[in-house]
Amino acid sequence: MTDSWLQTDTNMIEGDDHVSETRLERDPLGELPVPAWALWGIQTERARHNFPISGLKPLAAFVDAMVWIKRSAALTHRETGRLEPELADAIVAAADEVLAGQHRDQFVVDPYQAGAGTSHNMNVNEVLANRANEILGGKRGEYAPVHPNDHVNMAQSTNDTIPTAIRLGALSLLPPLLDAMDRLAQALLERGRAFDGLVKVGRTHLQDATPIRLGQEFTAYGRTVERSRVRVLAAAEPLRELGIGGSAVGTGLNVEPEYPALMVAQLTELTGIEVREGSDLVQLMQSMGDAAAFSGVLRSYALDLGKIANDLRLLSSGPRTGLAEIRLPAVQPGSSIMPGKVNPVVAEMVNMVCYQVIGNDATVAAASGAGQLELNVMMPVIAHNLFFAMEILTSASRVFGDRCVAGIEADEAQLAYWLERSPAIVTALAPRIGYAEAAKLAKEAVEQNVTVRELVRAKGILSAEELASMLDLRAMTDPGVPGER
Q1: How far apart are CA 319 and CA 316, in angstroms?
Q2: 15-24, 150-159, 475-484: lowest mean pLDDT where?
């Protein structure tokens, strides 16, 4: 029986190059035309019809991770004798083509799809099966001698391959993220060294505070990124434990006892990623806690990164009516109507990325708590949001460091101007004249629009030598009591 409700426009699917050419495939629900040129099959085609949601395709990390699993499984079953060498080798050859960059347009299932990721799993199974059959001289859609379920998916379930793919995908995206964080941290630390001799007014509550060196501010930014990197690396460690071999509910039905260990060995050799066999496959299938915890650390980094970007926007505000203590590199015109205007566009981009990552984490958190009993069916949206967050954080960190931070310049005259006018430097006098008298001086200086130094000199409160010693602005940026160093 043919699914009549799916027959409409099957020969005119948007985006197909050969809209008039189809082949007829059958599954337990009936028959369905599939584009003749497609490496995917009927189950993928059903997903295309069922889930025209976002127009998005699976991220590369999700495809790669699943293909790694299928390739490793074929070699494992070849080793155990469960899969004929000829079929295993054909599957491996098909997988290698995909991993080399071929057939990437054949992975077409929307991230918002059937629960658990069955559609994505079958998309990979069908593509590899069809291509393996072609390598062996067969035709697309015939699934002989290689079948997507019986051979490519042998001893696997969506329920153990998708959680494993989430872990492998995140781990594969980890090195470039860590590298980008390193580069950003080093760019900030280098600016910290360059600016270490420049004293400026500190600010708390967006109000004047005691002096700080511009280099101290930038060094602190660099250390913040370094600390985030440590947290990201630590949170990734639990992801190295794989639940592959759990099969349908984590019990390993239809799986050879040696399969999990062999899979770990194959995946390690193929990817270079250090992974290990899961200690409790049922637990690893039930819980998305490791992915949620890792996503939470990405969110924490995004919060810190966004704060740094906001600080740089504030410190560079102006150029005439803001703080204007630093100058960010001018990378593009800032206005379509105001000539000469230059905006902090790289920092603005970073803020947008950080907000997106925070939203991604909210999705991962909610979806991670939405599992029932032996499975979390929200895994596709977890994978998409986790991988996307890692990708954009990597790019934003790299661009921020290279195209913004590395080229920041300080306006020394502006730093000195604001610093001398700050009433907060009166804090250095508090140990000598008391808090209450110092507070009166600060208030009077503001009311008279004079500096604290000018007011103290006019009142004759301190000798010239004492004044110079106690209001040594550079000395205020290091530990010690003014006048007693």
Answers
A1: 7
A2: 15-24
